[in-house]
Amino acid sequence: MAVSEDFYRPTDVVNLWGDPTKARAELGWNPQKTTFEQLVKLMVENDMRKVAADDAASRVHTNLAEYLEKGLVK
Question: Is the dihedral of CA 47, 51, 54, 57 positive or negative?
């Protein structure tokens, strides 16, 4: 695997810690009962709702076209 510095984000952190209280209250999430697959499904469904709500798909298309022009992705 090769890592491109073009995509490195120095603000990324190695370890993240959080309080799951809000996830339990708003999503009904329980780390002892939610499988990894269910967690991924919840995350994707939430992202899809956001994309539909704010027309993010058009911005993704615009960004992808720009990245292709610059040769950043193939």
Answer: positive
